[in-house]
Amino acid sequence: YLALQNQIDIQAEEPLVALCVNHTISFQQAKNGQRVFIDGHEVTEAIRQPDVTNAVSAVSKHAKVREEMVALQQKIGQAGGVVMDGRDIGTAVLPKAEVKIFLVASVEERAERRFKENQEKGIETDF
What we know:
The protein is mainly α and 127 residues long. The protein is built from 6 helices and 3 strands; from the N terminus they run ααβββαααα. It has a 3-stranded antiparallel sheet with strand order 1-2-3, with no helix packed on it.
């Protein structure tokens, strides 16, 4: 999200690492679910837009970016009282988590679920 907002090349590792180090991500519980903030600005919906989602894979390929993000996720997890989802949360991020739930779904099922989520939020998405 920040890379796109700041027109930073998502193939360039060092500027992406700088974004990780120089910005603060926080969360707040709300009636309608968890809200996400970067430097105090709410980005809950913005980080789920198709352009951001499409950039995630390229950004996550950078080893140093992954190191920074895993460290942040571990810090959040150590505080307790959190539910995290993602491909490597139970293996790389929180391998000793008190509770782990693994869901398995086909690519088609995951795509349909994301499509429906986006429709409900008014985000234009192709299926």
